[in-house]
Amino acid sequence: MRFLGIGDSCDLGALYMRLLAEGHEVKVHVANPLCHGTLAGLVTHVADWKTELDWIRGAGDDGIILFENVAEQRGGLQDALRHDGFNVIGGSAYGDRLENDRGYAQDVLRAIGLSICPVTTFSERAAAIRFVQDHPGRYVVKFNEAYETFVGQLDDGRDVRAFLVGLPPQGSNESFILMQHVEGVEMGVGAYFDGEKFLAPSCLDWEHKRFFPGDLGELTGEMGTIVTYERTARFHDLTLGRMESLLRDNGYCGYINLNTIVNDRGVWPLEFTCRFGYPGYAILDPLQRTSWSALFRAMVTRSAGNFVTWPGFAAGLVLSTPPFPYARPDVKVPVGMPVLFDPDLSPEDLLHVHYGEVGLQNGQLVTSGAYGWTLVVTGRGSSIREAQQRANALAARVTIPNVRYRRDIGDRLIAGDFSRVAALGLLDDCADRSAQNARTDAPLIDAKRLEPNGRMPS
To answer: pLDDT at residue 450 above 50?
Structure first.
């Protein structure tokens, strides 16, 4: 098969490496010059992705374009390429709006019957500050099409007002929401959508976004996650599953995730991710028995309704280096630092190492890119604790100058949050694992010929 990746910073590097290992052809376009070193020497880079369209078209159903992110109106571009007959997996213009226009997304969620946290959209800081003064409370500030998110801690909103005063402008036309804070367990649900339907099973995830252990420090993109494909159908049907007709009507094809807060008063949706999640896709990799190529081909041909997964949990840790959680050139730190592995790592161990911002330099794997998003390591186990311990043990066998990562990914789930979710009745019954494959009569992707590592035998 042939795959053409299009993005800013080569965010799907670990996925491209999997596809290459399966024997497929892969080319990538990396728009950000600071990221041209990412996967250099490992994957073929192309300066102009448009010149590769005939190469993709010539492969028919075996030619697939993968879009990494929602920047620069790429959803509309994906829609246009699909109209021209190309197989495209990533998102759509509708997905771009769901992710970037948070107020609109909340309106959509309300319309499909979900409980919504009180949300107000603003385009002026002064108006938002007056709103908090007039309606004291604990709020979360989320900017549309910008990274900055602030979770207020004070019940009178003083910290939110101070944040809005002190934060530098986030673009020339700011737009942001104030969302009333809700206590509970944060969890997400994600699934692959093939343009007509969701593929089963969906996954459940518990992200850890703060930089430091104990959920302290800056909000990062993500420091680590616990994921599972087990006992997921009930929560999917209550939440993301209600989006099926809207996604179909608006031409969506790709992975989509809905993040929520759950408590004894209900499920409170927070935001969509309408693309591959990072590092989510890499952490799902150890649980997917169906290969990436077989999954993607089934999506573009709409030839299956299910794929094959491993039971249990996967834990993923982001191994970051400076300038993470910031970016170059805002923080002046060098790239090209060596990335070294314990020479005794087994082939199975290496399947749990997922490249991020790395590349080859004089035959040595080194750090690269703009953000310090260096590697993701994973562990799979029958319990959250087992998956966590395996991921931590593997991370300790990787040597990178100034590497940082959290060793507490999953601790709160183990201490009680997972039991709380189960007690709320949001998970399938333990004895009914088949429920996750019961949402469609479409055929199952054949896994009988798959080896345990998910690759097709030669």
So the answer is: no
pLDDT digit string (tens) for 340-384?
999 999 999 999 999 999 999 999 999 999 999 999 999 999 999
Other Cβ atoms closer than 10 A to 329: 9
Residue 439 has pLDDT above 50, yes or no: no
In this structure, are residues 192 and 200 in contact, taking their beta carbons and an 8 Å threshold? no
Contacts with 83 (C-beta within 8 Å, 6 or more apart), sequence order: none
Q: Nearest Cα to 273, choosing from 140, 55, 86, 96?
A: 96
> CA–CA separation, 418 vs 30, rounded Å?
39
DSSP per-residue letters across 191-229: EEE-SSSBPBPPEEEEEEEEEETTTEEEEEEEEEEEEE-
Q: For the chain, which residues make up each domain, given as ranges?
A: 2-99, 118-180, 185-437
Q: Is 187 helix (H, G, I), strand (E, B) or coil?
A: strand
Strand partners, 263: 266
- The predicted model scores a pTM of 0.89
Rounded to the nearest 10 degrees, the angle between the axes of helix 13-21 and helix 292-301 is 100
Q: Please list, in sequence order, all residues whose beta carbon lies within 8 angstroms of the beta carbon of residue 274, skipping any fewer than 6 positions away.
A: 70, 75, 91, 92, 95, 96, 98, 99, 252, 254, 256
CATH fold of the domain at 118-180: Dna Ligase; domain 1 (3.30.1490)
Closest CA to 295 of 432, 180, 203, 175: 203
| CA–CA distance, 268 with 291 (Å, rounded to integer) | 33
The backbone torsions φ and ψ at residue 282, rounded to the nearest 5 degrees and listed phi first, read: -70, -35
Tens digit of pLDDT for each residue in 300-329? 999 999 999 999 999 999 999 999 999 988
Task: Write the pLDDT tens digit of every residue in 257-292.
Answer: 999 999 999 999 999 999 999 899 999 999 999 999
The dihedrals phi and psi of 51, each to the nearest 5 degrees, come to -70, -10
Q: Residues near 47 by Cβ (< 8 Å), separated by ≥ 6? A: 29
CATH number for 185-437 (one of 1.10.10.10, 3.50.4.10, 3.30.470.20, 1.10.1060.10): it is: 3.30.470.20
Q: Give every strand in the sheet of 149-151, ordered side by side.
A: 119-122, 176-180, 139-143, 149-151
Rounded to whole angstroms, what are the CA distances from 260 to 41, 205, 288, 429?
Answer: 40, 10, 23, 21
